[in-house]
Amino acid sequence: MLTFVLESVGRFIILVISRAGYGGVLLLMAVESACIPLPSEVIMPFAGYLAFLGRFTVAKAALAGTLGSNVGSMVAYYIGAFGGRPFVERYGRYVLLSRHDLDLADRWFARYGDWAVGFGRVLPVVRTFIALPAGVARMNLVRFNIYTFLGSLPWCWALAWAGYKLGQRWTVLRSYFHGVDDGMAAILLLAVAGFIWSHWKNRLPAA
């Protein structure tokens, strides 16, 4: 079932880019950055493959993907900014999140937010959701867009270049990055489990 879903998503991506060109790359990368996990590991290498065929250029494909990442990240940012904090303040206690946690996020992004957003754009799984905590922390919009762009550009360029170099074999990247994504997802799950345990432990009555 999972294989069928992944193959269907891949066919959808190929169809959109084949018909919409650079605009399709921009649109799909915007969707991925708006917390809907379309795989950029398919989007950008296929765009690179079209560069191999002479329909695209690697530079323009990478720029379209980067701009799409900025557009989608703004959607996620505003979801975090205008929905995240009020929602967590009201319902966060049911998932062990408090106003104190949000205050810590504010301070963390004030100190490290630029690098977190920029570096997070090249991490599997993380790149899809990094804009949400930035929005909750109300990171400065100009800096947010600059670092999103600077973090997304090398990722999009590298994937497009890899698709260009691999040519007809561009699909081999999908299986490789699927394993990387699974590993990163496992790490994130462990981190969440550790976070929940630490909160529960701190709230248990002293013996």
Spell out the helices and strands N to C. HHHHHHHHH
The number of domains: 1
Give the low-confidence spans. Answer: 179-189
Helix percent band: over 70%
Biggest sheet: strands, sense, closure?
none
Overall strand count: 0
Detail the topology: elements first, then pairings.
Layout (H helix, E strand, L loop, with lengths): L1 H19 L1 H12 L6 H13 L5 H34 L7 H22 L5 H4 L1 H6 L4 H26 L5 H32 L4
Helix pairs in contact: 1-2, 1-3, 2-3, 2-4, 3-4, 3-8, 4-8, 5-8
Provide a descriptive summary of the structure in words.
The structure is a single chain. By secondary structure, this protein is mostly helical. It has one domain. Helix content is 81%, strand content 0%. It is built from 9 helices and no strands. Helix 1 packs across helix 2, helix 2 packs antiparallel against helix 3 and helix 4 packs across helix 8. About 5% of the residues have low confidence.
